[in-house]
Amino acid sequence: MKNIITISREFGSGGRVIGQIVARELNYDFYDKEIIDLSAKESGLSADFIAKNEQNISSGWLYNLLLGTSYAGVQMGAHGHAHSAQPAALPLADQVFNAQRKTILSLAKKGSCVIVGRCADYVLSTSDQINQDALLDVFIYADMDDKVKRAVECYDVPEKDAKKVIQQLNKRRANHYNTFTEQIWGNRENYDLLVNSSVLGLEETARLIVQFAQKA
What we know:
alpha/beta; five-stranded parallel sheet; two-stranded antiparallel sheet; 9 helices; 7 strands; about 55% helix
């Protein structure tokens, strides 16, 4: 029986709804955007700050490169010798990632749960604080037509712009994940189960995950 389930998902695939159904069926706690508020309490960062920056800056080293600062707080002297400098401020994306990482670990140790997004699969699968036998990592994707329909109906995205918006948001998610995890977003090697929600629909996809969790 798997009692910690992470749901990674393409935008428009219905991953959040599927996660909610899975949590309800298994009587698990459910966390998605709730992680923003919990991370704010944990870190002292504001919830608005976290919400605006959790995927907006996809690379800490790039942020520092643009500012001309040294991430490690080390600068080179005139003759090429390294010397200590005042530590550079931690990039915004790194601050947010660290805050959410601590929150995700805390939630997973607290009890049975379903966690959506925010690199939770990587955070938990690489932690020695988590029982790996209890962890189930799922990736949800869908056909483009279904993603477009869901973007229009659920997120009020104009139909003429929907495909472009979906592609941009999924590219942002991939860049964020690839940067902070050093893995490839959506790569089958990173997940226990990958499901096309267009095949069975949201309800049946959720039931499939529930059955998998119960029997694995």
